[in-house]
TrEMBL record:
Protein's name according to its UniProt entry: 1-aminocyclopropane-1-carboxylate deaminase/D-cysteine desulfhydrase
UniProt entry keywords in alphabetical sequence: Pyridoxal phosphate
Source species of the chain: Flavobacterium fructosi
Pfam families, A to Z: PALP
InterPro entries tied to this protein: ACCD_DCysDesulf (IPR027278), TrpB-like_PALP (IPR001926), TrpB-like_PALP_sf (IPR036052)
Length: 292
């Protein structure tokens, strides 16, 4: 990719780590699965929405590592139609059992009282939070950057629950700065991130959420399709696509100094494209034209 002011951009293909547990999900689950084995747990329980990359990753990882899996899914309306949802159908095919709850109940996902109710219903389990973010997940994400990545000045990554960017911030080299691009509106994650990381060489860029979590525009879809046609790299529309769009837009707005070397972290999420295309077709909008 060629850019003005002798700026160079590279993509770290974390999406290629594993065919089904890719990107940051691979990193986040690594030490959690080891801990579950150490605790001699047989079941993993986690939370997610209709097209959650995390739900799909936990389901496959559980199958691969010999765990039973339970997904607490946001939205009671999905109970009777999840077979038409490619993400949930994949998770079920991997053996995951579902518990569909209302959005009001789902908000209790971090409450001890609610987790105790789930333990009464499902017996003992190893709890993995929504999105997979906890201390062990951050430890895994601290392994994303390697010594060879020290050549870069800026590290760009998408932000969901904040675990991935925390791991990256904790492992950057002294001359580097991390730019996070939240998939949700607002900068409410700043304080949470600040309380976890070990340095202040980072910032959140909140102008590229394209309407909020799970929202896309025709402009974003066109960008993802063009990027794939020119570079052969698929981008998901929820996270990485927005981050790459944002970085390239900032380059053209002269945000970065001349000769900056930028590394973009591809955090996976490609499985969600099929579900997004279903929604786009229903709205008679252009689809993401990527062969995955």
């Amino acid at each position: 990719m060629q850019f003005p002011n002798a700026i160079t951009v590279h993509v770290k293909r974390e999406d290629l780590l594993h065919p089904f547990v890719s990107g940051n999900k691979f990193r986040k689950l690594k030490y959690n699965l080891l801990q579950a084995k150490e605790e001699q747990q047989e079941t993993l329980l986690t939370f997610g929405g209709a097209y959650s990359n995390h739900i799909a990753a936990v389901a496959f990882a559980g199958k691969e590592k010999g765990f039973k899996t339970i997904g607490i899914i946001r939205g009671e309306e999905l109970r009777d139609k999840f077979s038409k949802n490619p993400t949930l159908q994949f998770a079920q095919n991997c053996g995951m059992k579902f518990e569909f709850v209302s959005r009001e109940t789902y908000r209790l996902k971090q409450e001890i009282s609610f987790l105790n109710i789930l333990k009464e219903k499902f017996s003992d389990f190893y709890h993995i939070p929504e999105g997979g973010t906890n201390k062990l997940a951050i430890k895994g994400c601290e392994e994303i950057l390697t010594e060879e990545d020290s050549a870069f000045d800026y590290i760009g990554c998408s932000v969901g629950t904040g675990g991935t960017i925390c791991g990256i911030i904790n492992s950057i080299f002294s001359h580097q700065k991390v730019l996070g691009f939240p998939a949700l509106k607002g900068d409410f994650l700043k304080e949470e991130i600040r309380n976890i990381v070990n340095n202040n060489k980072w910032d959140l860029v909140t102008d590229y959420h394209f309407g909020g979590y799970g929202k896309v525009t025709i402009e974003l879809i066109a960008f993802i399709n063009q990027f794939y046609a020119e570079n052969g790299i698929p981008l998901d529309p929820i996270y990485t696509g927005k981050m790459v769009f944002g970085v390239i837009d900032l380059i053209h707005k002269n945000y970065f100094p001349p000769k900056s070397k930028i590394l973009l972290i591809h955090t996976g999420g490609i499985q969600g494209i099929q579900g997004m295309n279903l929604k786009l077709r229903n709205k008679q909008l252009p689809i993401i034209d990527i062969n995955v």
